[in-house]
Protein: Subtilisin-like protease
Amino acid sequence: MVHKLSSKMDQLLQFHLLIIASLLVHVTSEIPEAYVVYMGSAGTEGAPNPADMEAEQLKMLSSIIPSEEKERINLIQSYSHAFKGFSAKLTKKEANILSKQDEVVSVFRDRILQLHTTRSWDFLETESGLGSERAHRRATNDVIIGIIDTGIWPESPSFDDKGMTAIPSRWKGTCIEGFDFKRSNCNRKLIGARYYSGQLDSIPFSSSSSNGTHSIAFTGSPRDTIGHGTHTASTAAGSTVVNASYYGLAQGVAKGGAALSRLAIYKTCSLGGCASSAVLKAIDDAISDGVDIISVSLGMSSVFQSDFLSDPIAIGAFHANQKGILVVCSGGNDGPDPFTVVNTAPWVLTVAASSIDRRFQSAIILGNAEVIEGVAINFSNHTRLESYPLIFGADAAGDFTPVSEASNCYPGSLDTKKTAGKIIICVDSDPSVTRRVKKLVAEDAGAKGLILIDEAEKGIPFDSGSFAFSEIGNEAGAQILEYMKSTKFPTAIILPTINVDQITPAPVVAYFSSRGPGGLTESILKPDVMAPGVSILAAAMPIANRETTPEGKKPSSFAIKSGTSMACPHVAGAAAFVRSAHPRWSPSMIRSALMTTAKTTNNLRKTLTTSSGANANYHDMGAGEISPLSALSPGLVFDTKTEDYLYFLCYYGYKNEVIRSLVGNRKFNCPPNLSTDLISELNYPSISIATLDKAFGGVRTVQRSVINVGPANCTYVVQVDAPRGLSVNIWPEKLFFERRGMKASYQVTFDGKNAGKGYCFGSLTWSDGAHLVRTVFAINVI
Structure:
């Protein structure tokens, strides 16, 4: 009887819990959140009046938001230049109602995008001759680069406008003032600066500038309070600064790739990330302002990628491309796993990251006089005349602490009685504990230094400030542990960092650089190209940071950062360099020039490799490392038209009505017999076939068209580099051009009947004896 009563009470309790859960789901779904409502092209018959468009958008909101919540009838952002739409606070139900209206293309949550955080240009100059006077004489036209990022530190010497001519009359942008930013902060180099509402920084900072020291807790201005935007802007188009360094490291001349180009800043990001609604608004403004190139070093997580018309960067970039503006984006830092690359729309130039021929070396000298060449940025006061006892983290575990936690320098895992005054050795088998956390744990434990064994990140220097730190790989780690076993009292010293140049091999694909194939479609080869993104010296905010500023030093005007965020502005600068010499080239022609002339060999003239030492494939590095001077004279280019992109969307599965709204053309119709396989037919500078199925013959043919941008009366002959078993045939095998500007088409047939399963990588190269036009391919045989 008791059991039956208990069972009934359990059932009743479960019933009540189900009711409560359903009510919670209902209430949660009715909580207003920020959504972006995208309404397609603004049309070609002149830009609509922004005030009229805002009135229409508010009217649309008032039709679905209850009158008792009229305070929500408010726009966060309004888009009215190149495309239409707005962002506002909506419930899930209201967003669903709007998404069904005829004039609405898509409705999606206002997500938070993440930042993808100069010797580099010298290195590219050595490899391609970018710094030659001949090259710069050809690059004389004004180019305006829009940087969508965290803002700008205008006082940096990298934004000095000395020697620059008057601002181009076509510029329609503005320099918006803030409480700590004046119109006079803009000049002939830094010609525009905007910021967007809602970009709050939660951490106040102190700045040492010519105006004294001040603290602020939010950023109602274009001023950078993180440093990311300042760094990327100066990488792309910073003025030449002599004797630049980071506290003596990487000393030399700092400069951007397009030092004569102008900069327009669009601050959309804060410490918390970048609101997608603000990023979309910034692209809309940049298009209207008159920029030529847009650099975007941010994006969605590779885990939660959206389709192309629910991605603010893809949407904005499409309309920018329509207006003749090339959008360059970072590919993400989620490597080395496949399917991690982001910003993969075919109208975007997607960038992977590589190393340069410089290493920041922090040597470890063991008690037996062996020297281990670790990597780090540390400014400790250690010298060769001293040494400290060595202890492995696992041997310093506190009471009741798992050995695995102590070996990873997990917070609270170390016994300070065992670690004080010693150098700790930790490993990196737990990715949840960052290098910064390990360093802080070692400091709090009273250690004199930290040696981190980390095979993955051993080439990406961590900045530990005045604390002695060095990072090594597994082989060097095993060497140190063997030494510790050989003696009763092992000792070591970690020396301050020095920079070593002319490292070989270089470039190398960075470990963190996101890899292809693209998760949204494997029929477009992504990333597109690779550029320097490891240990890049560029402008910074002169802000004191207790963790990284060396003791007794003033804040540096430069910083060393790594990430595809740093690679992206290298390509934006290179694109501006090419555009300055060829102002009439379309965005796809510039992209083509950079891709087909990219290098696939390193400074040893051997095949490019990954950080593990394996040969890099085209999912790792795209078409290869950019070679800006070669891109000035590519010989042939692939010109991808807006219509090509519309067909891509057709093949991808979008309906006629959606594509018509996107492009503002009510007459557009998708071709019949649609298939995702047809995406490979897009006139792109690379080729990717997602499925070459042996069960259906294992043969596919794609077509490409090229334009001669070289001399007249030239003949190009093709050469194929294909893996064993994959047959590649080109027809015709010769292309003859009577004049400059002449077009020609060819077909490429892939036969995989005798190929092994999986991706096959190769290339076909057209040559007229003076130019090499390489098209790389990735063919997935199943």
About this structure: The longest helix spans residues 2-29.
